[in-house]
Amino acid sequence: MPSSSSFVSAEAETRNWAELPLDAISSILHKLGHVDILMGPGQACRSWRGAARDEPELWRRINMLGHADLSRQLNLHGMAQAAVRRSAGRCEAFWCEHAGGHGFLLRLTDQAPSLKSLHLVSCYTSSDEALTEAIVKFHLLEELELALCSNVGGSGVLGVVGKACPQLKSFRLIKDVLYDSEASDYDKDDEAMGIATMRGLCSLQLFGNGLTNKGLTAILDNCCHLEFLDIRHCFNVYMDNTLRTKCARISTLWLILPKLGDVGMREQFIRPQASDRGFPRIISSSSMDARGDLSAIENQVHKLIDGLRSDSIEGQRSATSEIRLLAKHNMENRIVIADCGAINLLVGLLHSPDAKIQENAVTSLLNLSISDNNKIAIMNAYAIDPLVHVLETGNPEAKENSAIALFYLSILDENKGRIVQANAVKQLVELMDPALGMIDIAVAVLANLATIPEGRTAIGQARGIPALVEVVELGSARGKENVVAALLQLCKNSNRSCSIVLREGVLPPLVTLSRSGTPRAREKVFYFR
Question: Repeats (ARM): which ranges (predicted)?
Answer without folding.
Answer: 341-383, 423-464
